[in-house]
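We give the entry.
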Amino acid sequence: MQGSIELQNDGPGKVHPWHFHSLKEELFVVSGKVLLFWIDGDGYHQRACRSGTHIALPAETVHGSVAGAEGAVYIISPEGGRTALTTFLDSSEHPRPVPEFE
């Protein structure tokens, strides 16, 4: 079986607004800092992720991120190495404002 991963390189303050993916995805922060925010059955969460942080998001989890002041590099591994369908929410559908991050 063949699969793939994505290396994401976000510049300082880069925002990925609220969206969700069709597949489970795992993120591993290689360098820098990124603020990940999401909503699940337990409500709203946010986590400042630094180098070495691993996060797993189930399929269809509404989430987003903001890169820190020095940017962030992280690996995204979708379930089975397949290509996930990404759906961005219209700003009128955002469950909360996108948080700010240093």
Observations:
- The first strand starts at residue 6 and ends at 10.
- The chain has no helices and seven strands.
